[in-house]
Amino acid sequence: MQRIVIVGGGFSGINVANKISKKTKRKNVSIVLIEPREDNVYEPFYLYWSFRKDPLKKFHIPIRKVLRKRVQHIPALATKIDTKNKSVDLSNGETIRYDYLVLATGARMAEEKVGAYEKDNVHHFYLTKATTELREALKNFNGGTIVISPSTVPYKCPPAPMEFAFMVDRYLRKRKIRDKSTIKFLYPLLRPYPERRVAAKIQELYDKRGIEFVEFFNFERVDKENNKIVSLEGDEIEYDLLVLIPPHEGHKVIIEAELGDREGFVPTDRFTLKVKDHDHIYAIGDCTNLPVSKSGAVSHFSSPIVAKNILLEIEGKEPTKKYNGFTICFVVTSPRRSLLLFFSYAYPPKKFGLHNLFIYGLVKKAFKIAYFKAILKGYL
Ligand SMILES: Cc1cc2nc3c(=O)[nH]c(=O)nc-3n(C[C@H](O)[C@H](O)[C@H](O)COP(=O)(O)OP(=O)(O)OC[C@H]3O[C@@H](n4cnc5c(N)ncnc54)[C@H](O)[C@@H]3O)c2cc1C
Predict the structure, then answer these.
(1) Which among 297, 290, 38 is positioned nearest to 282, based on CA atoms?
(2) Ligand 1 atom nearest residue 106's Cα
(3) Torsion angle of the four alpha carbons 243, 244, 248, 252, in this order, in degrees rounded to the nearest 10
(4) Which protein residues are within 6 Å of ligand 1, measured from CB?
(5) What pLDDT does residue 343 have?
(6) Which residue spans of the chain are classified as CATH 3.50.50.60?
(7) CA 222 to centroid of ligand 1, rounded, Å
(8) Are the C-beta atoms of 103 and 275 separated by less than 8 Å?
(9) How far does the centroid of ligand 1 lie from the alpha carbon of residue 180, in Å?
(10) Per DSSP, what are the bridge partners of residue 3?
(11) Which of 71, 119, 139, 267 is the most buried (most CB within 10 A)?
(12) Geometric angle at alpha carbon 275, from 315 and 327, rounded to 5°
């Protein structure tokens, strides 16, 4: 019996488990998913949830409901990975042996590194509890300066903070307090998005809506006593409400097993998705150091490669399948409009479709249904 153990059952882990299950009927292969949570969260919904209170079930789904029957879910935390003995210790006291290991632990939101989220005017929308608190703060906001900024790169879904600025603009207009408010979007580059043509479009839309873009702002710290955000270069910007994307890093279990780089992200071969210098270990999604965005779309397009390469190895063949870095990204510019972008290793992001159509806004919303009904289950 060949046992494939997947550590982390977020989008990447569930997706790869289902893809492996779908691609092999072999009876001598078992698939085990280690994930302490019972639910999977559709994170893009946080952008909407910051502004309105939908029930949790609208974007949470029980993991068992989307996992194929053949995949065994162990609801525990992996506490230690022993690559020499090919085993994983679990928080329930068990030790589980593997023949193939897939790391899919995602990125940890290192909120403690900011040391300011306890304030009632410093928030983010990258976790459920944090988003709930942000929604409350937005409800109580009656004018002033809202500052939006990433704290470090990389962070999940690169356009999300920039999209958030569009959403805040609309929210304040609806509440008729836009004229009493300033929105500032801070970014470490000289333009609001890495790709020049996309950045030009974003800048045009920002100008139209009076959103201020502050270029080359490299976050250093929050001066919470004086309500200021300070850059490495010493610039200070005052806020009444700060929306700061938390620092991202790898999880403890990865760092302690010496499977991570300086930030705790897993050095991963960009084509085969094998973990560098380790046989029989693959990595997928936000836990990797791949030169692509930390996004569900990357997990989606790379999961068949991980699945296929492991199955090739099980058959005694070379893992020859290669991920070409392809991904897509919807950038929401209003609740009903978005831009559609395409990237890959070969054309980072030279070749892209730039659209601003009502239909793409709808597609982004419809995507949630596809996510739960087909993508997570490995049908697409
Ligand atoms: C606001 C927001 C908007 C976004 N919008 C988009 C979008 O429009 N399009 C897009 O493609 N992507 C988007 N993303 C990004 C996308 O949601 C993530 O990239 C994706 O969910 C990553 O999946 P993952 O499985 O790699 O990581 P995660 O979803 O973080 O899952 C990792 C899992 O590992 C588990 N874990 C961690 N440590 C251990 C351990 N020791 N033992 C066992 N399990 C462990 C965790 O509990 C977690 O469930 C967005 C993200 C956010 C926050």
Answers:
(1) 290
(2) 27
(3) -90
(4) 7-13, 34-37, 43-44, 46-47, 77-78, 104-106, 125-126, 156-157, 160, 251, 253, 285-286, 294-297, 299, 330
(5) 82
(6) 2-107+250-326, 110-247
(7) 26
(8) yes
(9) 36
(10) 30
(11) 71
(12) 90
Tell me the per-residue pLDDT of 4-19, one tens digit each, with 9 for 90 and over: 999 999 999 999 999 9
Amino acid at 168: V
- CB neighbourhood size of 59 (10 A): 21
Residue indicated by tokens 């042996």: 97
Write down the CATH superfamily of domain 110-247: FAD/NAD(P)-binding domain (3.50.50.60)
The hierarchical CATH code for the domain 2-107+250-326 is 3.50.50.60
Residue type at 133 in one-letter notation: E
**Position 251, amino acid:** H
Dihedral-angle region of residue 17 (phi above 0 means left; psi in -120 to 50 means alpha; beta otherwise): alpha
Token pair, residue 163, equals 């999209």
Task: Please report the atom of ligand 1 found closest to the CA of residue 12.
Answer: 25
Q: What pLDDT, on the 0 to 100 scale, is given for residue 373?
A: 73
Give the residue carrying structure tokens 């601003």. 356
Q: Which residues of the chain have pLDDT under 70?
A: 332-338, 348-366, 380
In one-letter notation, the amino acid at residue 84 is K
Amino acid, res. 351: K
Sheet holding 87-90, edge to edge: 78-82, 87-90, 95-97
